[in-house]
């Protein structure tokens, strides 16, 4: 701009730039909208309204494609999430939130949700401050739609998606939605609690060699093992929730799977999530508040209502061995709270330096402090940490070396040691310890010398 000394040429350039913007503003007037978060709040206490997941109050917005509707909802007064609800008023069961725009960044009363003529979809506070947006201004958007599969899209004139909600999951995947190693989205993140809609402690992540469930981003509590892929040294490209229509003994059924695709091999591993006899195109996979993975299917019935069915739970008490991947609930980090012994999905004890006592919510370790002279270790036999099954630990090392590593590390709360393979795991959080029928597995828990 410094090259143009005359103010006239600057004005001329501004004029050109301005007309360029106008020619790019292509959303037809009847496709733009602006909805304000105000008016009556619904809850579920009269015959017209039904309860939504997390029991919020909510305001439905006009965009609706059966059975999906955008709403402002809040579980805390004056802190609204713009969410996509699945289910209908006529469903005789709780409606579920399967996508949301602004987790962790709630908006207040009178916030606006708008599609401007420039094609940018914006969630803003009443004072105009933008809280969330699709960043699609002047990118050729001509319209907005909620598709029948629950994908919220901004389309260009050729019908391509300039932006789609399927690329921005929070804790839920719908049928046809993918996680991708390159370009993302590469993970689901759990919700902190029913009332607090911020990121929780758990994530479901796609990596080049595996799918992993992490506690706090770095402690795996489950990971897929795809031996055929590892043998051929191929890399995962994406994981997609799909329905596979199949026939078995002349019965048609739909099997729900998380298909793992790669660009190099014809072997496509998948996570089997069960079978249904009905059209299950309305289903979702959820990383729950508790870190568990569950698949739900939605079935419309002839009366115009619908019901939800829980089809698959990865960490489950009852484990039918029919090819599906199941884990004991004891492998959920928080199954027994801050500290507890777990066996067959039950919390069975609270370990203390003086022996195991009855488990309760209060079961915890005492802070060992930092100075090595201020703490000692007590031993537990036949237990594993939740990370042990899916991480290698270090080794072979001597137990004394494993111990001194923990002793020197202030943040280490204890260590786990397998005497048969001389392997060592350092634990920064103890959480749920699984009872294992293996006398070579030991835990050493730090405790203050009182
Ligand atoms: C807007 O108008 C066009 C042309 O009349 C029509 O095809 C389209 O369905 C309208 N969109 C909405 C949201 O009403
Ligand atoms: C929302 O806006 C309306 C006017 O449109 C106003 O009467 C009301 O007080 C506002 N609510 C809040 C909480 O600011
Ligand atoms: C596996 O593949 C990667 C690249 O995709 C390559 O760098 C590595 O050498 C391969 N390993 C084996 C054992 O073939
Ligand atoms: C997933 O990966 C496969 C294999 O590379 C590819 O054909 C497919 O288009 C990908 N799907 C998505 C949704 O990214
Ligand atoms: C299942 O339902 C969807 C719409 O909900 C429809 O598009 C699809 O064709 C149906 N599939 C079968 C096999 O009936
Ligand atoms: C204990 O675990 C090791 C592997 O860590 C295994 O080789 C051994 O057979 C197990 N022993 C029992 C009694 O389960």
From TrEMBL:
* Entries under CDD domains matching the protein: B_lectin (cd00028)
- What SUPFAM superfamilies does UniProt report for this protein, alphabetically? alpha-D-mannose-specific plant lectins (SSF51110)
Q: Which Gene3D superfamilies match?
A: Bulb-type lectin domain (2.90.10.10)
Signal peptide (residue range): 1-25
Tell me which UniProt keywords the record has, alphabetically: Glycoprotein, Signal
User: PROSITE patterns attached here?
Assistant: BULB_LECTIN
Domain Bulb-type lectin, by residue range, is 49-167
This protein's source sits in the domain of life called Eukaryota
Coiled coil spans: none
The protein's name in its UniProt record: Lectin
Give the originating organism.
Helianthus tuberosus (Jerusalem artichoke)
